[in-house]
Design goal:
about 70 residues, alpha+beta, 3 strands, elongated, 1 helix, three-stranded antiparallel β-sheet
Length: about 70
């Protein structure tokens, strides 16, 4: 097991099965953190540009974590 803390929550991950274990009392705090994580992202879309023959493909965007819980063990 590998342990760490995220904010005030003590989190452990099993290296064998990669399961994540938290105290039951911490689920509310993790849920609130997940909601805050997504509330800050919002909709960040831009209008599509007109396509012309001289255009090249943009560089790939960096991968963002899909959820707060994904940031627990990097």
């Amino acid at each position: 097991m590998r342990s760490g803390s995220v904010g005030d929550v003590e989190v452990a991950r099993c290296e064998g099965c990669r399961g994540i274990f938290v105290p039951r009392s911490a689920l509310g705090a993790l849920t609130e953190a997940e909601i805050d994580f997504h509330a800050a992202s919002g909709w960040a879309t831009a209008p599509l540009p007109r396509i012309t023959e001289d255009m090249t493909a943009p560089p790939p965007a960096p991968a963002a974590p899909r959820a707060y819980i994904a940031t627990l063990f990097d």
